[in-house]
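As the work plan foresaw, the team has encoded backbone shapes as discrete tokens. One protein thus recorded appears below exactly as we store it.

:::
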Amino acid sequence: MSDAPLISVRGEAVLEAEPEIARLSVHVQSQEPDRRTALDRLTERNRAALDLIGSYGDAVEKTETGGLVITPLVKYRRREGDIRAYQGTVLIKVTVADFTVLGELVTRLGDLERTRVDGPDWDLRRDSDVFRRAAEHAAHEAVARARRYAGALGARLTGLVELSDEGLGRDEGMARPVTLAGAFAGAADAGEPEPIDLEPETQIVRAAVEARFTATAPDLG
């Protein structure tokens, strides 16, 4: 085993980047006295929401159905068969790539009957180049830091023993998402709503590595 001096360091990097996508959670609901009517209304409203989302074409990167629930609502004093209504909910997950249509899409979805919109949640794609650059910067910082330590001791680096990746992370934003609730049955149609102004939230990407280097003998004189 080599008896060369070892220098162990930690390299870190923090990068700021503009978000690449925005995610919306669209909750479509129905509530009717009987199960079949609740399901039919839910199907109609789900189709209306999907048609609206689909009308934005390539601006919407992905549309997914997150789940469907039909729930009986019982009266306050519960007895067998004492059901006052049935409530249905469909969750639609939407990924938007074109932020120029986002404000309009959010308000139009929120204007649909018995529809709630949560979002946007700003994010980077999993294969974003920002993650690669953050990892590279962290590795470069580890090398630079080790060189500074070696230089302070009158030594120089001679080799790499180990490089350990502590992982990449993205800081979660502190801002609360916009929530819009659609009109209930019987509400008057006031025409198309005004698009809401949405400012993309800067994404913070962090990377860290731990490294060990061999070095020449220090000059401790």
